[in-house]
Amino acid sequence: MIPKQLQNKDFRFILVKPNDKSPIESKWQTENNYKHHSPKLLNHISYGGNVGIICGEQSNGLRILDDDTPKKGLIKIFIDNFGETFRIRDHLYFVFDNKFSDKIIFESKQLLFPDSKGKLSPHLGEMQGTSTFCVTSPSTHPDGTKYEIIKDLPIATISYDKFVKVFGDYFKEKKKKIIRDHKPSDWKGDNIINIPIGNIISFDGLRDVGRGCLQGTHPKHGSSNGMNFRVDVENNTWICFRCNRGKNSSTGCGGPSELIAVMEGIIECEAAGASCFTQEQAQQVIKIAREKYGLTTPTQDLGVARGWANSVSIVRVAKKYNFENCQICGKPFKFQDSHGMYYCDTCKVGGGLSKFAELISKRS
Predict the structure, then answer these.
(1) Which of 178, 186, 307, 308 has the most crowded CB, counting CB atoms within 10 A?
(2) What pLDDT sits at residue 30?
């Protein structure tokens, strides 16, 4: 039976393997979770399955402090400063007055403690946060003991500011973000895929995650975890992990034109990807790119044929790589085979063979 303190309409539970701490179902953060009276959850419990409660959701603000120290020092500090609250095993259940939901890890700056494998570590415990869960009553611990209620009390609401003052010295230091002194370039050119993404959005606050990539909060719709948006500076592309729908999906990502469209509200982020524009939307993007981001109108003076155009057919290249339509608006390119030129009448973009080859190599 789920404890009465947890029979809250906003609390959500997940199915956990018997005598274990591992979820049975995937996507439990968003889909496979249940209310306390769900028949599926109750049936799972009746057959000896464990149950977990999801922590840190904004709707309920539930926090659980898990004390891993040998003498339960964190629990003592909590009780001395905030009084008793609902407790199962070494887990204290409470709510912050401001619904703060990030996970907090506690560690000692001076002492080392043996972990479950006997290895010495400064780790003291953690406070579960968003997208985490804690195994709860009426479950069975892997060591065979029950998740018994130690303090059958209401779940306390406490001051977050006071909590920081009391426990702040034990917070594990987070890796500092690399804040870039970001300055847009004075780029100008007639190919929209070459507009530096750093000219469209600021890189201030993004973290350098290696391999030419920066990651942080989505500049348009924000982020719950601060890391849902990544820019590949070397390839001048971006991806939103919230809106991207899978490993093989091209939604929620793109290059400069898609980012301009998202930032200007022409399309939603989840719609961004290959061939995502209508003709009207493509024209809007081009117009804004020319007004704000240095895009120029290419000349159509073909001049004398030279270089690649004497030996390579741009039409055959386009057919070979299935690249006969404009990546922005989806309309067919116009080709001048004798001069190795391509052009889009709708978007007013084009160029020669070198630029066309670059366009093909950068496509999603």
Answers:
(1) 308
(2) 82
